[in-house]
Amino acid sequence: MVERYLETGDHEHISANPVLDALYSLLKVLPHEKALDPATSTRQLRKLRSQIGLVLERLEKLLHEADPVKVPTYVFDPADAHVVGQLIADTLLIQSRQSLASLPKFYGSGVYAIYYGGPFPTYAPLVGYETPIYVGKADPVVSNAKTAIEQGETLRKRLADHAKTIRAAENLDIEDFQVRFLVVRSAWQGTAEHYLIDRFRPIWNKETKICFGFGKHGDSPGTRKKPDRRGILSILAENGLLGLKISPTNLP
C-alpha cells in the first residue's frame, strides 16, 4: 500500500482514507526502538536515506494541506539577505548618474553600476537604458567599520581604478562612461552586488561569461592568469566587441 502510494504520481485529488491507510501501514513497519541491522550495506543505507527524504518531503506537504488554517505563500522578512540585496540595489538605481571622469573624493565602501553612452555600435542597445555594462562593490578597509570614515575611501578608489583602465584604451572616451554609486553599511555590499549581477547580467561582469578581467585591480598584468592577464579592454578588442586600439605600454 505504501509503495503503491509513493510510486503513483497523481496525489493532488486523492481522498484522505487511502493516505491514512498508507500511513498506518508505514507506521507498522517503521522501527520503534530497534535500530537498523549493523550489517546493512552502505549502498542500502544510501538508498534508504534517499527514500526517507522523499517520504518526508511528501508528508510535509500533506501536513500543510491537512491544516484548515493555511500557511501564507510568502512571509516578508526584512532580515532576509535577498530582501536586503534588493533594497540596496533599488536604492542605488535611484541615485543620480555621475561622470566617471570627474568624481569627487569621498569616504565609504559600497556598490556601484557603470553605464556606457558612447558611439560603439556593439553597445547601442544599452545606450539610453538602465542596464549597466558592469556592477561591482568595494569592501571597507575594516570589515566591521561602523562609519563611512572607518570604511575608508575604498569605493572612490575602486571607481578611480576603473577610470584608469578605461583611459588606457586609446580610442575610448572616459566622458562616455557614467556611474551610480551608493555607500552601504559594512558587510552588505556583497549581497547587493550579487543581486545586481543576477538582475542585469552586465556583459563586463565575469559571472555573465562574456568578458573577463575588468574587475581586476591592484595587481600586476603579468601576474594574471589567461585570459584575464591583459585586462578586459584588450580582450574586447581581440574578440571584436569593441573597436579599440590598445597601447601595449598602458595595459591595465
Can you describe this structure?
The protein has 252 residues and is of the alpha+beta class. The protein has eight helices and four strands. The chain has helices at residues 2-7, 16-29, 42-66, 81-93, 148-151, 154-167, 189-200, 232-238; strands at residues 98-99, 110-116, 134-138, 177-183. Strands 1-4-2-3 form a four-stranded antiparallel beta sheet. The radius of gyration is 28 Å and the shape is elongated. The termini are far apart.
Write the layout of secondary structure elements.
Elements: H1 2-7, H2 16-29, H3 42-66, H4 81-93, E1 98-99, E2 110-116, E3 134-138, H5 148-151, H6 154-167, E4 177-183, H7 189-200, H8 232-238
Antiparallel strand pairs: 1-4, 2-3, 2-4
Query: How many DSSP helices?
Result: 8
Principal-axes geometry comes out as: elongated
Assembly of the depicted chains:
single chain
Query: How many strands, which pairing sense, and closed or not: the largest β-sheet?
Result: 4 strands, antiparallel
Question: What order do the SSEs take from the amino end to the carboxyl end, as H and E?
Answer: HHHHEEEHHEHH
Q: How far from one another are the termini?
A: 68 Å
**Beta-strand proportion:** 5-15%
Structural class: alpha+beta
Number of strands: 4
Residue windows where pLDDT falls under 50 for at least 5 positions: 1-6, 218-252
- Radius of gyration based on Cα positions: 28 Å
Strand adjacency order, main sheet: 1-4-2-3
- The average pLDDT score comes to 78
Percent in helix: 25-40%
Salient structural properties:
252 residues, alpha+beta
Give a quick summary of the entry.
With 252 residues, the protein is of the alpha+beta class. The chain has helices spanning 2-7, 16-29, 42-66, 81-93, 148-151, 154-167, 189-200, 232-238, and strands spanning 98-99, 110-116, 134-138, 177-183.
